[in-house]
Amino acid sequence: MADKIRIGVLGASGYTGADLVRLAYTHPKIEITTLTANSHAGKPMKAVFKHFSHVTLPDLVTIDDADWSSVDAVFCGLPHGTTQAITKSIFQSHPHVKILDMSADFRLKDPAAYKEWYGLDHVATDIQPEAVYGLTELYRDDIAKARLVACPGCYPTAVLLSLVPLAKSGLIDATDIVIDAKSGVSGAGRGLKENTLFCEAGEGLSPYSVGKHRHSAEIEQEIGFAAGLDGLRVNFTPHLIPMSRGELTTSYVRMNQGASAADLRQLLIDAYASDPFVTVLDEGVLPQTQMVRGSNYVAMNVVPDRIPGRAIVISTLDNLVKGSAGQALQNFNIAYGLEETMGLKQLPLFP
Ligand SMILES: NC(=O)C1=CN([C@@H]2O[C@H](COP(=O)(O)OP(=O)(O)OC[C@H]3O[C@@H](n4cnc5c(N)ncnc54)[C@H](OP(=O)(O)O)[C@@H]3O)[C@@H](O)[C@H]2O)C=CC1
Ligand SMILES: CC(=O)N[C@@H](CCC(=O)OP(=O)(O)O)C(=O)O
Q1: Ligand 1 pocket by C-beta < 6 Å: which residues?
Q2: Residue limits of the Semialdehyde dehydrogenase NAD-binding domain (predicted)?
Q3: Could you read off the pLDDT of 112-145 as tens digits, one per residue?
Q4: What is the ipTM of this complex?
Q5: 5-152+322-335: what fold?
């Protein structure tokens, strides 16, 4: 392998693309060669983002002007729906390129489910079977062999890391899960949206997409696989909170006969004993977004519910790092046989 792996980033003028560039810039095995944008095409990165004022990066170009033969890997931070055609084109015309997609377009295995949740026909169903769901800690072996990695959504990453081992073990009843989730505003992307304006998102807390958020489909798919259940349903309610990054999910679960919250916690400790980015906190210590901000870490814990037979599982991550760009880079490291933590070792930012 050449000393450096040349990467392109689709959607580098967006939040996930820019955070990928931020992390990749100091990665010892990466050379950033191509950055694309839509409305910002033609501009230097430092004209779009103030935090890139100190470094030299390629200027933003349109997707049509990018040369894919000069990259080895592509990270994709495009809105869902705009990802499929370009991914398929690169995948088929440049067999040496690996693609790490941060959008939702290749996460759902069933094209009918994609149509149901995203309201669009999938235009790359022929390459969908090649996509590996990029929840690193659960699919590491498949990611190592994949050319197309569909990185999970930010909420599903927090929820699934904390619940899949429990659902798989049978310690919880996978058919009775209620998830209360909260996200910082960057989760909605950089585009102008009225509910994300400072005056409208600040000093407020808003539930949204109640009973119909599209991440329900991903969560149900993966917990369903883990529990061996078809047609599983979960209750998932997201909220927008006035902070720029970070999210926290609180899952209310019913335990199967005889299990305790301590058993659930011990199972998570054992499941993630050798995973560098998953921290099961000490007994009684509650996850907070401040534990993970700006880092690839996930912090989680389990506490007993006052209602007998129930437990509360809390998980937190940074939506732009472990929830998207960081996990994509972690998957890139695995796909290229590099140390999994390369470029991702920075501790959370505090305060
Ligand atoms: N934000 C988050 O926390 C997370 C986001 N994701 C997913 O990652 C993807 C990117 O999200 P995010 O970075 O937040 O989004 P942003 O809205 O911040 O950025 C979108 C990027 O895509 C470009 N773009 C938009 N439309 C087109 C188009 N038609 N053709 C080509 N390029 C286009 C934009 O270019 P320009 O600005 O120049 O117009 C920009 O670079 C989405 O699929 C999102 O759902 C996944 C996990 C977490
Ligand atoms: C606060 C906020 O709006 N968050 C986004 C989640 C971002 C994400 O993970 O989106 P994808 O699944 O499309 O990749 C949302 O709820 O839609």
Answers
A1: 11-17, 37-40, 63, 77-80, 82, 102-104, 153-154, 186-187, 189-191, 319-320, 323-324
A2: 6-146
A3: 999 999 999 999 999 999 999 999 999 999 999 9
A4: 0.98
A5: Rossmann fold (3.40.50)
